[in-house]
User: Fold this.
Amino acid sequence: MSKFQIDLTLNAGQAIVSLEGVMDEDMVLEKVQGLNEETLIFDFDKVTSINSCGIRDWITFISSKATDSKIVYRKCPKVIIEQLNMVKGFLPEGAQIESFYAPFFCESCENEEMVLLSPNHIKGRKAPTNLPCSQCKTEGIEFDALESQYFHFLPEA
Ligand SMILES: [Zn+2]
Assistant:
């Protein structure tokens, strides 16, 4: 089995592209190269890592798609957030982030978890403070990274 996989679902003007595994020099995007649906949704949920070759190839690919289609990024894990924050062009102009993961910590039971958020949960790059722990249900788990850094890809205010 290849270390990088693509699962493609097509319906009515929309393509959902689920990416999985390692995005590096061996990443093959052939399967999605010809997509020209009105909306292209990229689901990064199962992406485990990305290196500089993967970043370069991805930017080449996504910038060619962004001219014809509306681009949506779904379920971005931390490794993708890092690129969104640091690499110009990783999110093409006009593209939208639908949801992403953020790290939280529960002081009551010491549970660490990645919580799926959408950009409208984040006001002025501040994490929500009222989320419940998925383990012990205590409300108010703490964001477990630097807000100004982690949420840099979102609007300042
Ligand atoms: Zn807890």
User: Anything to note?
Assistant: The first strand starts at residue 4 and ends at 11. Residues 106, 108-109, 111, 133, 135-136, 138 surround zinc ion (CB under 6 Å). The mean pLDDT is 96. The longest helix spans residues 52-65.
